[in-house]
Amino acid sequence: MAFLTPDKTRIFCGVTVKEKIIPDGAVWQKDSGVYKKGSKYKSERLLSGGTGEVKYVTIHNTGRVSHSPQTTDAEQYTRATWPNCNMNDVRVHYYVDSVEAWQNLKENEVGWHSGDGNTGPGNGTTIAIECIMNGSGDDDDTASEDNCARLAAGLLLKYGLTHDELVSHYKWSRLRGGSKYCPAYILPHWDQFKAKVKAYMDEFRSSEEEEQPGTATDPSEDDTPTGAQDYVPAVGDRIKILPEAERYYPGGSRIPQWVKDDYIHVITQILFRGKPVQKGGKTCVLLGKKIAVGGTEVIAGINTWIDQQLIQKL
Ligand SMILES: [Zn+2]
């Protein structure tokens, strides 16, 4: 089976998001349980009674799946949903794993994930994120949860919500007298996860406020190549990510190959609230702008913090 090709790829709050929205008008390609071939495949309704208003972000966990090393868990779940029709009636907005996120639904449309039917607030008013983990707490679990926290934080900010509108599937289940323990791997440390999402919200809000247009320095001022060993990064520096770098920092997301091969990045921030930023025990810098290799135009960057030892000044 061929892997899916996303319709669009964007970087959102440091997460690579690949869009493959289930098309409007999609129908079941086969009979599946109570669903008959040819019947409507997704709800095709807007959230909150048709207004499209996003009121919460709902977090779920689902397990890892075996797949070719050339693809990801999130791609596999997305493909199983559409076009393969192998996910029963589960429809979520995002699947996220240790590498990337895949978007299956428009953010303002109704999904099917909270077990509260056509009229419940879980399905009816929220964006659903399925965070793919196996509960071992290994590096991939940590990175998946980190990507999930970034995505959730970005969505809460985007829709003017607070971290109190970050909710679990369990919340919606209990509202109906149920006890569906989901997200099973995150719920045991839910308060910690929520604090992390809040911290990302603060960070993203602040980096928007602190970003100063036009502060990039002329690269010709300093044309001496500097080795990674003694390099002291500065805002405006143009850098390449070292080819051997695997994750942005210990415990952070994996760095997609195209981020290393296809772009020169520009450092846009080195301090947060006046202090150097430590992640995974490493001092990090923010890559807020990028330039395609061979191009000249400075465009929006991956907006991700990276260990300063993993970059080389150009
Ligand atoms: Zn769930």
List keywords for this structure.
7-stranded antiparallel β-sheet; Lysozyme-like; 314 residues; 2 domains; alpha/beta
Quick rundown:
This protein has 314 residues and is an alpha/beta fold.
Task: Please give a structural write-up.
Helix 4 (139-158) crosses helix 6. It is built from 7 helices and 14 strands. Residues 211-228 have low confidence and may be disordered. The relative contact order is 0.12. It has helices at residues 47-50, 73-81, 121-125, 139-158, 169-175, 190-210, 257-261, and strands at 8-12, 15-19, 56-62, 94-96, 101-103, 126-132, 166-168, 238-241, 263-269, 271-272, 275-279, 282-292, 299-307, 311-313. The strands form 2 sheets. Strands 1-2-5-4-6-3-7 form a 7-stranded mixed beta sheet. Strands 8, 9, 10, 11, 12, 13 and 14 form a 7-stranded antiparallel beta sheet that branches. It is of the alpha/beta class. The chain folds into 2 domains: 8-207, 3-Layer(aba) Sandwich (Lysozyme-like), CATH 3.40.80.10; 219-313, no CATH class. It binds zinc ion. Zinc ion binds next to loops. Zinc ion is lined by residues 60, 169, 182.
Helix content: 10-25%
Q: Mind telling me the CATH class of the largest domain?
A: Alpha Beta
Terminal CA distance reads: 41 Å
Strand order of the largest sheet: 1-2-5-4-6-3-7
Q: What is the CATH topology descriptor of the largest domain?
A: Lysozyme-like
By CATH, the superfamily of the largest domain comes out as Peptidoglycan recognition protein-like
Rg:
21 Å
Question: Mean pLDDT, nearest integer?
Answer: 91
Number of strands: 14
Q: Helical segment tally? A: 7
| Helix and strand pattern | EEHEHEEHEHEHHEHEEEEEE
Q: Which quaternary structure do these chains form? A: single chain
Give the structural class: alpha/beta
Question: Please, how many domains?
Answer: 2
**Outline type:** globular
Query: Which consecutive residue ranges, at least 5 long each, have pLDDT under 50?
Result: 211-228
What summary fits the major beta sheet?
7 strands, mixed
Bound ligand species? zinc ion
- Do you know the CATH architecture of the largest domain? 3-Layer(aba) Sandwich
Strand content: 15-25%
